[in-house]
From TrEMBL:
The keyword Nuclease does not apply. Pfam families: Isochorismatase (PF00857). Residues 5-149 form the Isochorismatase-like domain. It comes from Pseudomonas sessilinigenes. Transmembrane segments: none annotated. The keyword Cell membrane does not apply. It comes from the Bacteria. SUPFAM superfamilies: Isochorismatase-like hydrolases. Gene3D superfamilies: Isochorismatase-like. GO terms for molecular function: hydrolase activity. Keywords: Hydrolase. This is Cysteine hydrolase.
Length: 183
C-alpha cells in the first residue's frame, strides 16, 4: 500500500455556527473528519493540518490572529502533526506542504475539509497535477449555498457538482464509511 497522509483543510472556527462564514453541514463533516484523524493517528499515519488566513484585518473571515482563523476544537493538531499556514485556495501554493510530504515520503493523499468548492477542490486538483493519487472523503467536506447569475445554488448541488467533477478526473471520491472499511 502507498504511504498515505491525511490532509485536513481549513476546518476552522469561522466556518461553524457563530463564525463569520458558516457552512451547511459543517458539524457532520467535521465529525467525520475527526473520525478519520483518529483512524490515521491509530495507524501512526501522518496527518497534516492546513489553516487559511487572509492577508488583512478587513477580510470577510479568517482574519489574521483571530479566533475564527484557528483550527476547530474537533480537529486540532496533536503532537508532531504540522499545521501549514496558507493564503491561497491551493494549499500547495507558496507553502511548505510539498516539502513536508516529500520529507515523510508520502505517496498518496486523503483529503477532507472546507470549502468543498474552493480549497478542497483546488488542493485536490493541484495534488493530482503533482502526481499524487488522491482520495477525497466527500462526507468529511462542507460547502455553502452559492449564487450564480442571479440563481441560488443550494449547498447539496454545489457539493454534488464538485465531487462529481473531482471523481471524473482528479480523485477517488468515497464516504467516511467506505474509506474506513477498506483501510
Amino acid at each position: 500500500m502507498a504511504r498515505q497522509a491525511l490532509i485536513v483543510i481549513d476546518i476552522q472556527n469561522d466556518y461553524f455556527a457563530g463564525g463569520k462564514w458558516p457552512l451547511v453541514g459543517v458539524e457532520a463533516a467535521a465529525d467525520n473528519a475527526a473520525r478519520l484523524i483518529q483512524a490515521f493517528r491509530h495507524r501512526s499515519t501522518p496527518v497534516v493540518h492546513i489553516r487559511h488566513e487572509f492577508g488583512s484585518d478587513d477580510a470577510a473571515f479568517f482574519t489574521p490572529g483571530s479566533v475564527g482563523a484557528q483550527l476547530h476544537a474537533k480537529v486540532r493538531n496533536q503532537g508532531d502533526e504540522p499545521v501549514v499556514l496558507k493564503h491561497f485556495v491551493n494549499a500547495f501554493r507558496e507553502t511548505e506542504l510539498q516539502a513536508i510530504l516529500q520529507q515523510r515520503e508520502i505517496e498518496e493523499l486523503v483529503i477532507v475539509g472546507n470549502m468543498s468548492h474552493m480549497c478542497v477542490e483546488g488542493t485536490a486538483r493541484a495534488a493530482a497535477d503533482l502526481g499524487y493519487p488522491v482520495r477525497v472523503i466527500h462526507d468529511a467536506c462542507a460547502t455553502l449555498d452559492l449564487e450564480f447569475n442571479g440563481q441560488r445554488v443550494p449547498a447539496a448541488q454545489v457539493q454534488g457538482a464538485v465531487m462529481s467533477a473531482l471523481a471524473f478526473a482528479y480523485a477517488s471520491v468515497q464516504s467516511t464509511e467506505e474509506f474506513l472499511a477498506a483501510n
